[in-house]
Amino acid sequence: MIRFEHVTKRYPDGTTAVDDLSFEVAEGELVTLVGPSGCGKTTTMKMVNRLIDPTEGRILVDGEDIAGVDPVKLRRRIGYVIQQVGLFPHKTVLENTATVPQLLGWSRRKARERAAELLDLVGLDPAVHGDRYPDQLSGGQRQRVGVARALAADPPVLLMDEPFGAVDPVVREHLQSEFLRLQRQVRKTVLFVTHDIEEAVRLGDRMAVYGAGRVEQFDTPATVLGAPASPYVADFVGSDRGLKRLSVTAIGQDDLEQPPVVRLDDAVEAAAERLAAQDARWAVVLDAGGALHGWVAREALADGAAVRDHARRMEAWLPLGASLKQAFSVMLQHDAGWVAVLDDDERFRGVLTPAGLHEALRRSVSGVEQLESVAGS
Ligand SMILES: Nc1ncnc2c1ncn2[C@@H]1O[C@H](COP(=O)(O)OP(=O)(O)OP(=O)(O)O)[C@@H](O)[C@H]1O
User: Fold this and answer.
1) Which InterPro entries match (predicted)?
2) Which CATH superfamily is domain 2-246 in?
């Protein structure tokens, strides 16, 4: 969708901001550009919407060399979100969000309807916030309006330059989660500039780690953390990259244990027999529809009619594919001996125990070492 071919940018004073850059961002992919200040991230981004033109090389958007495209027309296909947001102070939130559709010639009513829909999508109630002015919003809310405005004309491509850089860490994490949720819905092709390695790892399908003007490594966060391509990248991602890897290592089916499963309506004797046959002290309890209800202890199944007479609720669960970091946090939060793991259709897939989690942690960390020795050989 966005393709850089040997792109170099030299400013008139002789500074080479970007040096022979080649990479491709697939349709619907979110690529983070991360690196220290002055390494050329913003220059890279501004070349995509022709705020800056390259000195050498070419950039293709959707197969078309953008050097031949009128910048104004090009920018209609490309949403742009920056740290300073740049909302018009004298326009309301709704008017700000409707700006681009109106420039594109939409009727005032249609543009405002679309704006209200988008504010809703980014988690702002148009009835509450729509008529406010930007200075009546919090920093986090202003950033959300910036994202809504960039999405208003439904461009296939989004450029985001440190969009969450100016808010405090708690709000930033919140905005990141919301943005990930939003991106799963809208599936834009996104270039996202940040100097925060945690943010780059968390948001990126792939990440480009910049050294001075060059991409030192372009790969998935798990690979960048597990097998840094050079001592520079290893140093940049930090000595705690093993820990960071926990947030990008997913729980898999192999990490789960399979205790006996009984249903709320099962007769007590039949349930007790099943537990005895597997020599288990407890079983997971599902309701008639197969949804997780909780658990039941073997010794409780001595009397009564159905499992439901003795079943206890268990609220904690994790989706299959959740990160080890999330798993750790849910286990600590619920002080639980096990956590049920459900798939996308909320079907029960097994339980994660502290032993299973420990095994997965070891695998993740030793993965780092193994990959390191591969990278070093
Ligand atoms: N108009 C300009 N003229 C000359 N040099 C420039 C110009 N704009 C940027 N540069 C230089 O180009 C290099 C790359 O700048 P760029 O803004 O792309 O970096 P960055 O990685 O986005 O940095 P930051 O994270 O600080 O925003 C820097 O050395 C910068 O000083």
Assistant:
1) AAA+_ATPase, ABC_transporter-like_ATP-bd, ABC_transporter-like_CS, CBS_dom, CBS_dom_sf, Gly-betaine_transp_ATP-bd, P-loop_NTPase
2) P-loop containing nucleotide triphosphate hydrolases (3.40.50.300)
